[in-house]
Amino acid sequence: MKKIFALVLLCFLVMGNSLAFAENEPVPASESAILLDFNTGRVLFSKNPDAKLYPASTTKIMTGILAIENLNMDTVVSISQTAIDVDRDGSNMGLLWNEEISLLDLTYGLLVHSANDAANALAENVSGSIDEFVVLMNKKAAELGMTNTNFVNTHGYHNDNHYTTAKDLSILCRYAMQNALFRQIVATPQYQIAPTNKYDEIRYMTSNNALINPNKGRTYLYSAAQGIKTGHTSVAGACFTCYAERDNMRLITVTMKAPSSGDSFKDTIALMEYGFNNYKFTEIAKTTDVVATREIKWASGDSHRIIYVTSPVTALIPKNYNAEKLTKEFTLPDEIKAPVKAGTVLGEIKYFYDGEEVGSASLTITEDVKRSFFKMIFGTLIKWLVNMWVIIPLGIIVVFLLIKRAIAIKKAEEMRRRRKNSNRRNFYR
């Protein structure tokens, strides 16, 4: 009985320590790390997110998404000599010259097995040459807003000028994971490639992502994880990008330059647990909430109408949030004229938590507002009359001043003429 009690007590202690660990901010061993909400891209935690570091094989995320976006995956291609001209101490899938293989199998080889030769083969099929593909990689990075990134190869083999940041990688991951095929491939722990014209046996592709691949041991298996990519070189250290889902939350993490792969996996799990345990989706605005009241010009009946949000607003905010830190700002036109149909977007409202935007919605009214022609005509007439009461007196004053000025000029001319005549008469005397 004492042994059972001790075991139960130990379990509670372990659970308590685990919960405390999840609630506290992580302390990553990785030199750079970031955690963000997949839906909005909002950063929930970061450590040196803008530090320029070497991405190693996480580079293949860019190669993979560009291949998927630009190629027909069912196409069978022939492998060139330049594609397989890679350093053999790096990861590869053993492609052979003139080997015929589908682009889909190459993409699985790239993203599951992290094959450098597959990266080059895909690049050549997208752009015609590896160099041209690298140009495309950098162009795409610029389009996505990856402002501290530069690619010089397709696979991430070390080069001093080949770098990125945790923040930039998170932007890329968030973009790539919106593609269904990419998402499917990176969530695959193992993949088989059928024999080809150059290869008699089945190729077994296996992922180094220990969070999703039980063949890498069960130490780091993480049920919420669904990809995406590992990377490692002696200079870059261990890099890892991950996507996970739980309780309707979708999170992305990036860790760079961890001392070891194990450290990158531990950092990732700690980041994910911090996000899942400390944040939740909370409804911060209902469609019945009164945002403001506005006078509708020329409205039939009561001219004041209540402004509502067009749809409920749900935001990812801390579970134990401080209501005073939740603020809002809205914009509406200075003048709204009838008629207005129910549901017409009139403006926008933004919600902030601790100064950071967490949600937004359009603003509208929930009923039709008809125009009162009497109010419109009467209002226009009053406005015109008011204007006339201003314009007419002002016009009279102006005319009066002009006439007065003209009379003064005429008198001055008359006096000059009289003086001139008087001088002339005096002269002849």
Describe the structure.
- By secondary structure, the protein is an alpha+beta fold.
- It has two domains: 20-278, DD-peptidase/beta-lactamase superfamily (Beta-lactamase, 3-Layer(aba) Sandwich); 286-364, Sandwich (Peptidoglycan synthesis regulatory factor (PBP3), Domain 2).
- It contains nine helices and 17 strands.
- The chain has helices at 2-23, 60-70, 103-111, 116-127, 130-144, 166-176, 180-186, 261-278, 373-428, and strands at 32-37, 43-47, 76-78, 100-102, 190-193, 203-206, 225-233, 237-246, 249-258, 279-285, 292-297, 304-309, 313-318, 326-331, 336-337, 347-353, 356-364.
- The chain has a six-stranded mixed sheet with strand order 14-16-17-12-11-15, with no helix packed on it.
- Strand 7 and strand 8 form a beta hairpin.
- Helix 2 packs parallel to helix 4 (116-127), helix 3 (103-111) crosses helix 4 and helix 4 crosses helix 5 (130-144).
- Residues 1-21 have low confidence and may be disordered.
